Amino acid sequence: MIESDPLLEAIQALYRELRGKTREQWQRDLPFAELLFDRWERAKSLGFGEGSSIYHSSYVYGDVRVGKNCWIGPGVLLDGSGGLVVGDHCSISAGAQIYTHDSVKWALSGGRAEYERAPVRIGNCCYIGSQTVIAKGVTIQDHSVIGACSFVNRQIDGHGNVTLVLDRLDKG
Fold this sequence. Notes:
The structure is a single chain. With 172 residues, the protein is an alpha/beta fold. The protein is 30% helix and 25% strand. The protein folds into 2 domains: 1-36, no CATH class; 38-171, Hexapeptide repeat proteins (UDP N-Acetylglucosamine Acyltransferase, domain 1), CATH 2.160.10.10. It is built from 5 helices and 14 strands. The radius of gyration is 20 Å and the shape is globular.
């Protein structure tokens, strides 16, 4: 028989309480760490803009700057080792990965070549679909939509389709 552990029991009780409150308020079930930590406080501690949030399960490396009112979903990787800027009102969906470096030449040269780095810029009012990978050196212009599971390795101009998207939203 396993001895009772008061600390473990307290943690489990806390988990049940937080899980219940989250289910009641938001109709969702989240991992324990997501229940414990405030996404908006984390974003603020990282210097992100007012109203932005980032899930506890997301990774942030290097120089990452995020504007106001952005949502960064669970399991996102933000690599700012080469500089990453995200504008205002952006949504970066679950599992997206944004890289500002790669180690291709380093690996092929047996470690003799340096890692390559280039900044990534995502404009205002952009949507990055889940499981998308954005490569180093990419600029995504304002009002761009990147579909789920995309690989982006070149500049994306966004203004061309924004009227069509907004028109469809207005018509329901």
